[in-house]
Amino acid sequence: MASKVWFITGSSKGFGRVWAEAALARGDSVAATARDPKTLSDLVEKYGYRVAALKLDVTDKAAVETTIAEAHKRFGRLDIVINNAGYGQFGAIEEISETEARDQMETNVFGALWVTQAALPIMRAQKSGHIIQISSIGGVNAFPNIGWYNASKWALEGFSQALAVEVADLGIHVTLVEPAGFSTDWGGPSAKHSTPIAVYDPARAKTAQRRATVVPGDPDATGPAMLALVDAEEPPVRVFFGDVGLPMIRQEYANRLALWEKWDFIADLAQGEKKNRKAA
């Protein structure tokens, strides 16, 4: 199998680091980005020229364009682009400040958009490429105390699903990876927390209690999964990482369908005379 060139945002730790190491270990090349490229120095020492350690803040559109161009110049192509950079904003919806709301979207949505837009002309010229958007189980469901994080991932899901159709005839694939709970520092040092309002404390406590019963997955186990995904001839538009996602979403979609069916008479009312004339 020919070696591939990867571009991964948020490569200093967590999933991004695992996937960079998995790609390099099998002989691929990686443009690994981080806010502080010094955190990637050990990869450079170990793998040499096959690693480009690049400084990047994905919220800086001009910097994204420059960094993508630099990676392309270094390796001559971009086969896989992984939008992994992001963080979790914790807080009830009423607790989210304007700055927190905008910052979450700037990183989780606009950052992924800028990287995607910068990579697409290169992939179109190649007539090949795979854009992987790191979403979440919270991109297809929503949970108390991370509602604004959910909103950012739902936005990512929406534009990426449309993108997958737009580029399908151009030789470019798009995949949304939806991890469930893994033992990264997503909920620890990387997280941001809004100023709490006491009335939401009981709900927060219930959520924390539920999360305490969940055994987190091992991030290292996702390395082989990512390699299998990028090597697939026809990769999926969506895929779960972890065994929690599918059972949860089966129930969630069953609940949604049942609710839509129950209230379908409202949909009929909304059709008004047009609906009645059609029936007649």
Helix-strand makeup class: alpha/beta
Strand residue percentage: 5-15%
- Please give the count of helices: 9
Strand line-up of the largest beta sheet: 3-2-1-4-6-7-9
Roughly how many Å apart are the termini? 62 Å
Order of helices and strands: EHEHEHEEHEHEEHHEHH
What is CATH's topology name of the largest domain? Answer: Rossmann fold
Could you report the average pLDDT, rounded to the nearest whole number? 93
Largest sheet: 7 strands, parallel
| Rg (C-alpha, Å) | 21 Å
Helix content: 40-55%
CATH superfamily of the largest domain: NAD(P)-binding Rossmann-like Domain
Spans where pLDDT lies below 50 across 5 or more residues: none
**Oligomeric state of this protein:** single chain
What this model shows, in words?
The chain is an alpha/beta fold and 280 residues long. It has 2 domains: 5-243, Rossmann fold (3-Layer(aba) Sandwich); 246-280. The chain is 50% helix and 15% strand. The protein has 9 helices and 9 strands. It has helices at 14-25, 41-47, 61-75, 98-126, 147-166, 201-212, 222-231, 245-262, 264-279, and strands at residues 5-8, 29-34, 51-55, 80-83, 89-90, 129-134, 172-179, 192-193, 238-241. The strands form 2 sheets. Strands 3-2-1-4-6-7-9 form a 7-stranded parallel β-sheet, with helices on both faces. It has a two-stranded parallel sheet with strand order 5-8. Helix 1 (14-25) crosses helix 7 (222-231). 37% of the residues are buried. The mean pLDDT is 93.
